[in-house]
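Technical annex, item 7. During the second reporting period the consortium partners agreed on a shared format for inverse folding records so that results from different sites could be compared directly. Each record opens with the tokenized structure and is followed by the designed sequence. A conforming record, contributed by the partner at site C, is shown below for reference.
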């Protein structure tokens, strides 16, 4: 093989090779004499060099060997000849996966470190190494591959470290299978279906075990009928394997040494096709994944297949059991994370808006953080029609991840909906949410339970489809982006606020900002996961969002447009949830609404009845409905004149299947429904309103209140 180049070069290959120079004998190692033989151990002072376990190979962009330093005896029989393809050193089944990794490092320049990999010697035997792929230094523009020969102890340590790096149960099972491959030709991990879905497993459920294949290596095309990742094992196979590893009601490893024994145990050609990887004779070791306890619980089992002419030794079985025992707790941690992940996702998806309505079109996208992140966060968006015909749009971001954040998210979302439905303005709702977050963080109340929601953000927008305006308040949230009907897009200019639950010295009144949103306008509400990028300023991220949203055509399907915006902006490996709500304003047509302003005089009810009657005749409203609306308006206007001062505003809206009647005044008293007595002079007005309408309510304005009521057409 090529000798070590001059140490004057600073490429990764040269640096590793120069470090090897004083340990690797220049004469190289003698090739292995035959299958399974070991390199000769030299006598004298050079004998210590047998401990050298590091080698290095330099590749060009075509993945061919340029230089190599595999002179240590442990690498004897590995033919890394200059000009030969690197994949010649790999078992055929591993070629696609490793090639993909090599190409990925070439394209991204990001190293791939500590992959457990087998390399083929010329005699057909294999060497297990820890493979690291590094981009070569310019101007070489290739790759440097370092290989550490894996002694059993080192392999066990490296495997445990690699398996514990992800909280995704599929990735955890895959890492375990890749580590087990050092002892065989094929490795599979089959998990109890309840473990795979994140549910709990107890000893009482073990008799009804249902196994699902969670991982399988190497990654290659398998024969038809063979169980691959994501498939359930046949019921008979699950039962047989469960019985085999639980002999005498205690989980233990088993070895079936050859093909005849495998066929005798499985007994069915269908089961053999499903479980045996190929037609050649094979033996298998089945190692249960046992969670310590009283009694112990089996989470699944690992299967390691190898050629029958290379039977498992007792020491190898011991190593396999030790590896599985060291890493089974990682599988259980991934199961718990899967369960929490599903619970939070279910809550967040429950909060997503279902539909818009006749006056507004809604589309939303929620994209949870990647599985290896800290967990699903507390982002949410919601939209819902208010009883008075307006539409509420809410977006929030609760501090933290996991169930604590999800519980707070659900509480704040439901509280916001209840308060908005009760007619409170956006700033008043945020004041209540601010108090709630402060209460949740009060350790004396026992509600915090080690979780703090201080600093959570929220933005509330109310769309009025009659005036074509938007009232908006924000508590520390990023500004929404508004696209005008002519395609111009920009973030809304809103006064910044420190967020919910801020310290008393930082608290400021919540402002209400009002914007014109003519029909055809598009509003984008989002959370920071969509626009945050460590490499650019947050304002640049918001600018990119504005550019992408401005390209949405008025005729585009809004849900498809929302997915396009997220795919264009969201990072591939996101560490935070991504949430987006797009709202396209439609509003009421001018001919579907009418508003009158009447002086607060005794003749106001009669004038209101005359105006409403003429309008409903033009709208061809049936007589019964018209009579109900006239009686309703008369009661509401009479109350406004009697108990309030200033002018009275009367509005009628033709809203889908109903008519919405609104009467506004300058009073601040809240009308309350009560049943009038037989001899009472008053008190029956709101009772009449209640009986005539499908629903009614009150909302507060800067100058007073509006009492609204809906009558079915």
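Designed sequence (site C submission):
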């Amino acid at each position: 093989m090529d000798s070590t180049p001059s140490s004057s070069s600073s490429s990764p290959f040269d640096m590793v090779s120069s470090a090897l120079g004083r340990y690797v004998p220049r004469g190289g190692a003698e090739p292995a004499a035959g299958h399974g033989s070991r390199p000769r151990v030299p006598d004298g002072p050079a004998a210590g060099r047998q401990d050298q376990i590091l080698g290095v190979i330099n590749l060009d962009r075509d993945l061919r060997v340029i230089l190599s330093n595999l002179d240590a005896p442990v690498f004897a029989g590995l033919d890394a000849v200059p000009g030969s393809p690197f994949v010649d050193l790999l078992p055929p089944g591993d070629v696609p996966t490793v090639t993909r990794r090599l190409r990925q490092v070439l394209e991204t320049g990001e190293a791939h470190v500590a992959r457990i990999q087998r390399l083929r010697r010329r005699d057909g035997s294999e060497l297990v190494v820890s493979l690291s792929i590094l981009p070569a230094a310019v101007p070489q523009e290739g790759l440097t591959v370092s290989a550490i020969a894996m002694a059993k102890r080192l392999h066990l340590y490296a495997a445990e470290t690699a398996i514990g790096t992800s909280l995704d149960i599929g990735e955890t099972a895959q890492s375990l299978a890749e580590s087990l491959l050092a002892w065989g030709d094929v490795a599979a991990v089959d998990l109890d279906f309840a473990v795979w879905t994140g549910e709990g497993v107890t000893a009482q459920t073990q008799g009804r075990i249902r196994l699902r294949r969670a991982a399988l290596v190497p990654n290659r095309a398998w024969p038809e009928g063979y169980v691959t990742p994501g498939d359930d094992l046949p019921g008979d196979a699950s039962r047989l394997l469960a019985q085999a590893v639980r002999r005498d009601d205690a989980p233990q490893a088993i070895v079936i040494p050859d093909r005849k024994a495998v066929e005798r145990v499985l007994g069915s050609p269908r089961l053999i096709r499903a479980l045996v990887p190929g037609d050649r004779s094979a033996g298998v070791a089945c190692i249960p994944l046992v969670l310590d306890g009283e009694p112990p619980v089996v989470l699944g089992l690992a299967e390691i297949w190898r050629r029958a002419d290379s039977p498992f030794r007792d020491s190898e079985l011991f190593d396999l059991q030790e590896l599985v025992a060291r890493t089974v707790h990682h599988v259980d941690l991934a199961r718990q994370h899967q369960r929490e992940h599903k619970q939070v996702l279910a809550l967040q998806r429950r909060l997503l808006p279902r539909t818009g309505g006749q006056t507004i079109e809604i589309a939303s996208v929620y994209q949870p953080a990647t599985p290896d992140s800290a967990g699903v966060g507390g982002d949410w968006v919601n939209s819902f029609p208010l009883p008075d015909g307006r539409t509420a749009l809410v977006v929030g971001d609760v501090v933290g991840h996991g169930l604590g954040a999800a519980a707070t998210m659900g509480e704040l979302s439901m509280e916001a909906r209840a308060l908005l439905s009760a007619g409170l303005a956006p700033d008043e709702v945020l004041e209540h949410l601010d108090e709630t977050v402060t209460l949740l963080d009060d350790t004396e109340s026992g509600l915090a339970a080690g979780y703090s929601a201080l600093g959570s953000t929220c933005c509330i927008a109310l769309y009025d489809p009659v005036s074509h305006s938007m009232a908006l308040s924000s508590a520390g949230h990023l500004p929404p982006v508004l696209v005008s009907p002519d395609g111009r897009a920009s973030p809304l200019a809103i006064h910044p606020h420190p967020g919910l639950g801020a310290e008393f010295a930082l608290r400021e009144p919540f402002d209400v900002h009002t914007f014109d949103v003519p029909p055809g306008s598009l509003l984008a509400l989002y959370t920071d996961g969509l626009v945050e990028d460590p490499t650019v300023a947050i304002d640049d991220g918001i600018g990119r969002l504005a550019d992408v949203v401005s390209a949405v055509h008025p005729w585009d399907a809004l849900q498809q447009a929302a997915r396009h915006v997220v795919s264009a902006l969201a990072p591939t490996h996101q560490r935070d949830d991504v949430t987006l709500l797009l709202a396209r304003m439609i509003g009421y047509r001018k001919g579907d609404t009418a508003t009158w302003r009447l002086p607060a005089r005794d003749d106001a009810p009669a004038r209101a009845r005359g105006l409403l009657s003429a309008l409903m005749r033009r709208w061809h409203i049936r007589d019964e409905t018209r009579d109900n609306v006239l009686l309703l308006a008369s009661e509401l206007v009479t109350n406004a004149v009697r108990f309030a001062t200033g002018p009275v505003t009367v509005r009628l809206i033709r809203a889908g299947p109903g008519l919405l009647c609104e009467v506004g005044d300058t009073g601040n008293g809240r009308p309350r429904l009560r049943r009038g007595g037989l001899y009472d002079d008053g008190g029956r007005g709101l009772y009449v309103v209640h009986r005539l309408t499908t629903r009614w309510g009150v909302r507060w304005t800067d100058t007073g209140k509006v009492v609204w009521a809906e009558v079915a057409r």
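The chain has 16 helices and 25 strands. Residues 1-9, 21-51, 444-449 have pLDDT under 50 and may be disordered. All partners now use this format for quarterly exchanges.
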